[in-house]
């Protein structure tokens, strides 16, 4: 009522109030960001990765090529006006863009045949819940110049986008956006940069490298050690970097995987969940054991690499997934880190 | 075992003694040197233990030392060992010290990728002991700010509301807008677009003297800035 007689200032402030009452996605976004930056403790517990139902329904052969490869991690803001029906068009546009970049300054037409080929395809089964957007894969292939029938396409570069259990981000984003916050790339850095530039220009998004700090690496070590494995393919290995001059030293600590699992079982209390206390206790046991033998305080150094039979991760944002069964579980944690970095 | 008590000795005339406890020797030395360089009217004695034997409390009882006015526990967020060391040392401090004579200093929050301690862990610790927490990085700007804050606290001056009241301030990384001479800060946030403070933050602003707009007016404006902190501090406003 007051607004009819009020001064322009009052009108502005009442408009401002109305603006905040409606729960538009933008407002939800601001609220979630405010909540994150306020004093909220980290989730003290996370679920131990399990084999998801969606993944079980799909043929493991489809995603076998994702395993045993080193992926560089990036976090990606939501893509604007991305459509899964236009994948072929995107492939040809990206192909032209790459050709143009490689031959800077020369005119390029879309559809011309060059010796590289780009494919966009969806990855079925790479999601946590039905609500997650479909994961999709981008590959740069080289075409053989021979005119023979069966030309072999050699994969030069692979990159894939996924979102596993990304509910916290999906709730706050409007219809025009596609949320695939986790991007994994394998191949030459130059190709990653070119593909990244094209995506940033076309879909108004932003890539940033996803580093994994020591705190999260120790969570990964605990969670992956907690996973039940039929057979262990590799030892559980940790790598610490000791800050000293002139060159930093590295300390590598390898444990038999069954011993690590036995240690975890003695520390673990709640079935199905991992808590902060259990992670701290697990790592403290390793530190004190090392100190007893070598009189070195590993807690004063920086954990840079964790390697288990499930997966291995490096602090620079490199990951290698070794076990198909826990692929979704590993990606779920990485998605959480990517979403946290975007926020 | 000797426990540190705040009032077991006579205070010195125009002096304040600050005890720095932490495992990072080089860091403590730098902080102590920076504090001693401050252009202070009265004497400021720094009595910091960083020798190999006493990186932590308890202090040896046979040494003749003045009364400790302020204890700053320095934690390096990149090293869990420094946090464990501080937690051990806290047991040797008398409870009455925590009525405004203890502070926590967390270093290295700016380099998120190197952190092995979560920010909330150290925040919870400071909360438990009802003491102020400073996040700081090794930059000249934040050093100066911190030195001044410590100095004021040690002198027990009431113009430092951010230390006498148990609320926390976030400092790093600090930047200065060169034309206005205003000192700002925000949370150590990876994205520049979002600068929402998570704790009641201190707003310090000072106007650079005319004709010296581009010279960092640290020395001359420092007093002005701290004395006017009460007036301009949004945290102290209702």
Describe this structure in words.
The complex is a heterodimer of chains A (343) and B (238). Chain A has 343 residues and is of the alpha+beta class. In chain A, 38% of the residues lie in helices and 23% in strands. Chain A has eleven helices and 15 strands. In chain A, β13 (302-307) and β14 form a beta hairpin. In chain A, α5 (87-102) packs across α7 (189-203) and α8 packs across α10. The longest helix of chain A is centred in the C-terminal third of the chain and has 19 residues, at 276-294. The model of chain A is unreliable at 1-6 and 16-21 (pLDDT under 50). In chain B, β7 (174-177) and β8 form a beta hairpin. Chain B has helices at residues 25-37, 80-90, 119-128, 140-155, 161-164, 218-227, 229-232; strands spanning 17-21, 45-46, 70-76, 102-107, 133-136, 169-170, 174-177, 182-185. Mean pLDDT of chain B is 59; it is low at 39-44, 47-54 and 157-238. Chain B is of the alpha/beta class and 238 residues long. Chain B has a six-stranded parallel beta sheet with strand order 2-1-3-4-5-6, sandwiched between helices. Chain B has a two-stranded antiparallel sheet with strand order 7-8. Classes of the chains: A alpha+beta (343), B alpha/beta (238). The interface between A and B is medium-sized, with 26 and 26 residues. Chain A: Belongs to the CENP-L/IML3 family. Chain A: It comes from Nyctereutes procyonoides (Raccoon dog). Chain A: Pfam families: CENP-L. Chain A: Its main location: nucleus.
